[in-house]
Amino acid sequence: MENKTRTLYMIPYIGWIILFVVAPIALVVYYSFFDIHGNFTVGNYGKFFTPVYLKMAISSFWYAFLITIISLAAAYPTAYLLTKTKHKQLWLLLIIVPSWVNLLLKAYAFIGIFGAHGAANQFLDIIGIGTKQLLFTDFSFVFVSVYIFIPFMILPIFNALDNLNPSLLDATKDLGASKWTTFRRVILPLTLNGVKSGIQVVFIPSLSLFMLTRLIAGNRVITLGTAIEQHFLVTQDWGMGSTIAVFLIIAMFLIMALTGFRRRGA
Amino acid sequence: MASTIIQFKNVTKQYGQDPVVLDNVSFEIEKGKFYTLLGPSGCGKTTILRLIAGFTEPTSGEIFFNGKKVNDIPANKRQVNTVFQDYALFPHLNVYENVAFGLRIKKMKKSEIDKKVKEALSFVNLNGYEDRDIQDMSGGQKQRVAIARAIVNEPEVILLDEPLSALDLKLRYQMQYELRELQRRLGITFIFVTHDQEEALAMSDEIFVINKGKIQQSGTPNDIYDEPINRFVADFIGESNIIQGTMIEDYVVEFAGKRFACVDKGMERNEPIEVVLRPEDLEITSPDQGLIQIKVISQLFRGVHYEILGVDEQGNEWMVHSTKKAQVGMEIGLRFEPEAIHVMRFNESEEEFDKRLESYTEDESDGK
Ligand SMILES: Nc1ncnc2c1ncn2[C@@H]1O[C@H](COP(=O)(O)OP(=O)(O)O)[C@@H](O)[C@H]1O
Ligand SMILES: [Mg+2]
After folding, report:
1. How far from A172 is each of A97, A153, B53, CA to CA, in Å?
2. Which domains does chain B show, CATH number per domain?
3. Which of A149, A256, B145, B225 qualifies as a FRET site for A43, CA 20 to 30 Å off?
4. Which residue in A has a C-alpha nearest to residue B155's C-alpha?
5. What is the Å distance from ligand 2's center to B39 Cα?
6. Does some domain include residue A73?
7. pLDDT in tens, A52-100
8. Is A231 within a domain?
9. Which ipTM score applies to this complex?
10. How far apart are CA A142 and CA A134, in angstroms?
11. For chain A, how many structural domains are there in total?
């Protein structure tokens, strides 16, 4: 009786999962086995391992890696300082608010700021460096991506730091540890789960960024995300687009497996 | 022989504009003894430990460790270790690594660490638990790990902040014995915090009774139980009957409408005072044989004794612990010895109080 109601409650949930998670993935896998003329083939997978696509893959991973590392390097100290402030919830909110603004709007804002006559160049002019080409560079691409992703890195790290039992820090001091040792042996290991969550939510979406690559990087940065978009919208080679998507999905699962699941001391 | 290891000189602690937490506290701790800080919640016990450990600094006053001022020495450079109220064990490390934490920081050799950790764990009866996760340990076991983590560093002083308060009664009694025994074996100075007066009486060489950021009285458990300095101490330590009275002259005190012989002296004539009579020092007799007559209003069986409550003619309430039974509503008499009466002056400082008590013993040795 109770089991029956439980199954009943599960139906919408399972339905949702099938419709919006399983079916799309199955479709992507299905399409990846057809060439541009609609004939069944495994050739797309072979094509992925040619230099063109491998270079794209490496470039995607490289930029995602840069974006994640820089976000992490900026987010950890920020989150740490936030836990020490008086009105920490308010500060946290201020950091999160920009993430509610549409991505496209933020991208356009940066085109304005980084443009030839934008605020950034005016500033460089004033301090005597002179105007520089900022837009359509690797730098601007990574900078804007970090700006967009950083709240998602700060949030889990902040929570982990905030949940740290303060008497543990007294205990490490009590046992003779310096500040650095306290950080390395206690604070960092105990907030590692927050760091891992942050890496997941930044690295995975960074892998398949495509809009920013055109708007901010001016197509100088070609990632797997750009390639998928091109195949679906321009060359109409859905098969190859799907194959790349399959590899992205596999990459996501690998990253999840590397950073997640095995939780100790939760 | 007994040398001072820790000294507080006029230490005051205040957080911002809040009322003072510790109010001009001075005391000395001698090497190798078991000390207890006893007082109600919020009286400043933890604050004293945090000042000794170096987690916080005094607002004014000086703290000495082995004769050296340590106000500015950070916690990680002090020769003390703490057993925290919530144990504060590292959840990401197993039992072995928790205990080894302090030794690893000292960069000790692996073989030496191994030897010391094993030794500390066997001290607290936890051999064989090295590889356990902290989460898989019971409350009592965590407690022991916390103690092992402190003693393995061989500090000169161990601070224990209500370490037994989270344990159930039976385990608590057992740990009281074990802690006391451990302290004797190690010979390290223990400073133990509790709000449980029974625990304090059972374990300590010396007790500091604290209230509202001031040390009310310090002394051996016997001294404090038998000769409380004021109403707070008398009330906080054990059960007591506290009655308003008048000191007529040396060795004569009046309360409950009658005059009694007592052993106290040195007060003004007709000085208003309070007397303390412990419930177990009162003996039940027939009304005409008693020094005081009370009417029984309630009676509880406490296992070892009956706890009898009654009122005298003047309306004072009396508690009696007796192995004899009484009847509710019955009139009974109470007898007590002059030594059972303890006279307390109002607002007497600890020095004045000690001086007064000393003068009694001098009289005794003079063969009064
Ligand atoms: N960090 C702090 N900031 C402000 N007040 C504090 C702080 N720590 C303790 N107090 C105050 O000091 C008083 C004594 O606290 P504590 O020493 O912990 O008492 P106890 O351990 O005897 O229960 C309490 O009133 C508490 O609110
Ligand atoms: Mg406390």
Report:
1. 36, 27, 12
2. 4-226 (3.40.50.300), 239-278+336-368 (no CATH), 283-335 (2.40.50.140)
3. A256
4. A175
5. 10
6. yes
7. 999 999 999 999 999 999 999 999 999 999 999 999 999 999 998 988 8
8. yes
9. 0.83
10. 12
11. 1
